TrEMBL record:
Its main location: cytoplasm. Its EC number is 1.4.3.16. It catalyses: L-aspartate + O2 = iminosuccinate + H2O2. Pathway: Cofactor biosynthesis; NAD(+) biosynthesis; iminoaspartate from L-aspartate (oxidase route): step 1/1. NCBIfam families: nadB (TIGR00551), PRK07512.1 (NF005701). Residues 457-482 form the Fumarate reductase/succinate dehydrogenase flavoprotein-like C-terminal domain. Keywords: FAD, Flavoprotein, Oxidoreductase, Pyridine nucleotide biosynthesis. One of its GO terms (biological process) is 'de novo' NAD+ biosynthetic process from L-aspartate. Pfam families: FAD_binding_2, Succ_DH_flav_C. GO terms for molecular function: L-aspartate oxidase activity. This is L-aspartate oxidase.
């Protein structure tokens, strides 16, 4: 193993085997790269579960400027307009590139794109593959392309445990596999590890996605941004399975409605009704459930008899639960779905640490702002992979690592963190609930147990949420329900979060008004 690893030194190392990591590796070709995946490719990637598709202005009645306007409106004032504009302009070409890689997108008999409608989009611009299996089909094609690519050294079953950093610059990666620990000398690392849903009890993400990339970056000294903004999908299937199967928003785009157990259509008077922005729909469903009602997606009329053909994945898991969506309402509830915050990066995906980039959900590019527009996430992963690859390719390799790496940290287990975050950082939040979470997380984050790294990510999220004394997008404070007149992005370092958490834990509270959101 030592001979094999030494042969891979000096190459860029990509951490994460989802869509962002795979596409970054392909975009770097023919430069040799190392791709680390903790699980077999596709086994634990959130990308695999994506049903909605990719947002791109492909229709004759559409334009990137309209896509941009919808993205900015959903982002509640926190989008980086320059980044968003650049990305929506690149989106149609990205779809064409994926098609050339073998992704079988849904088309009409004449070859035209079959475009769907999702919440807060003013046009039908969602490109699907195999109905509600878009993520699975994209991952199939990307995995096949990576396995064919001679420049990619794929290490499956290898987990990055820490980054070796000296003088704020990457010097290597400390990882583990079944045989033990290994060190890869490199001055260029791309983190592409996905989301944080595994930190919560109810999530549409695989349980193995619990913010490992955020921990790697934070412990390396990188700044993180907008961690408080977590998107709860309003229509996760209300059943015992974890991750929770998703009843994609496209079903509502096809005319399905939301009803409660009395048959009342409770979103009817909201602007946009069932296709209002996700944060609004999630809060409406949350409130309805808090009043003692169950909530359902009613697709009996639209799409009705065509449901199984249009949405085979949803139809299959409904059938396993004894539900026929053409005849029965589908029970749903909100669940953690996507993290708008992440590693703070610039327009090329570079973090505040030299030689460290981030791509995909783990990054905070500024595209999503406070509330992600539906189906912009897969597109961000695909488009930004090219930007990151160009930046990585043009960067200097840096010197060899200096000194000896520390022993790897123990394997993480987020199970103790899930009830803490689910109670304190849910759809609705308040100061007391957030502070209780911080007091519970602080000792765990400072320990060396298997809960330490997940607790650290949860603690940083909680401190960021505690500081933002307003309600905006995916962050809703019942004690501060109004939106502040100026939209300000947040940033936080590991040291900053630990200092704030210690004061809260020791004194019981801080005057949050002195903190800059």
């Amino acid at each position: 193993m030592s001979t094999e690893i030494s042969a891979l030194n000096h190459r860029p190392v990509i951490i994460g085997g989802g869509a962002a990591g795979l596409m970054t590796a392909l975009q770097l070709a023919p430069e040799p790269v190392v791709l680390l995946s903790k699980a077999p490719l596709g086994a634990e990637a959130s990308s695999l579960w994506a049903q909605g598709g990719l947002a791109a202005a492909m229709g004759d009645d559409d334009d990137p400027a309209l896509h941009l306007a919808d993205t900015l409106a959903a982002g509640a004032g926190l989008c980086d307009e320059a980044i968003a504009s650049r990305l929506v302009q690149a989106a149609p070409a990205a779809v064409e590139h994926l098609a050339r890689l073998g992704v079988a997108f849904d088309r009409w008999p004449d070859g035209g794109w079959r475009l769907g409608l999702e919440a807060a989009h003013g046009r039908n611009r969602i490109v699907h593959a195999t109905g509600d299996g878009t993520g699975r089909e994209i991952m199939r094609a990307l995995i096949a392309a990576v396995r064919r690519c001679p420049s990619v050294a794929l290490l499956e079953g290898v987990e990055a445990r820490s980054l070796i950093v000296e003088d704020n610059a990457i010097r290597g990666v400390l990882a583990v596999n079944a045989q033990g620990s290994l060190v890869i000398d490199t001055g260029r690392v791309v983190i592409a590890t996905g989301g944080i849903g595994g930190l919560f009890l109810d999530s549409t993400n695989p349980a193995g996605c619990y913010g490992q990339g955020l921990t790697l970056a934070a412990r390396a000294g990188a700044l993180l941004a907008d961690l408080e903004f977590i998107q709860f999908h309003p229509t996760a299937f209300d059943g015992p399975s974890r991750p929770m199967p998703l009843v994609t928003e496209a079903v509502r785009g096809d005319g399905a409605i939301l009803i409660d157990d009395s048959g009342q259509r409770f979103m009817m008077d909201q602007p946009g009704a069932e296709l209002a922005p996700r944060d609004i729909v999630a809060r409406a469903v949350w409130h309805r459930r808090a009043e003692g009602h169950r909530v359902f997606v009613d697709a009996r009329k639209h799409p009705g008899a065509e449901f199984a053909e249009r949405y085979p994945v949803i139809s299959a898991f409904c059938k396993m639960a004894g539900i026929d969506p053409a005849a029965d309402p589908i029970p749903v509830r909100p669940a953690v779905h996507y993290h708008m915050g992440g590693i703070a990066v610039d327009s090329e995906g570079r973090s505040s640490v030299d030689g460290l980039w981030a791509c995909g959900e783990v990054s905070r590019t500024g595209l999503h702002g406070a509330n992600r527009l539906a189906s912009n996430s897969l597109m961000e992963a695909i488009v930004c992979a090219q930007w990151v690859a160009e930046s990585v390719s043009g960067a200097s390799h840096g010197p060899l690592k200096v000194g000896v790496a520390n022993a790897p940290a123990p394997a993480s287990d987020p199970s103790a963190i899930r009830p803490i975050l689910s109670q304190g950082l849910g759809v609705l939040r308040d100061r007391h609930g957030i502070e209780r979470a911080i007091r519970s997380l602080h000792p765990l984050a400072n320990g060396r147990s298997a809960a330490a790294d997940p607790a650290l990510v949860g603690l940083m999220i909680a401190v960021a949420a505690w500081r933002r004394e307003e309600s905006r997008g995916g962050h809703f404070r019942t004690d501060f329900p109004d939106v502040l007149p100026s939209a300000v992005s947040s940033s936080i370092s590991l040291a900053d979060a630990l200092d704030a958490a210690r004061e809260i834990a020791e004194t019981g509270s801080l005057f949050a008004g002195n903190a800059q959101p």
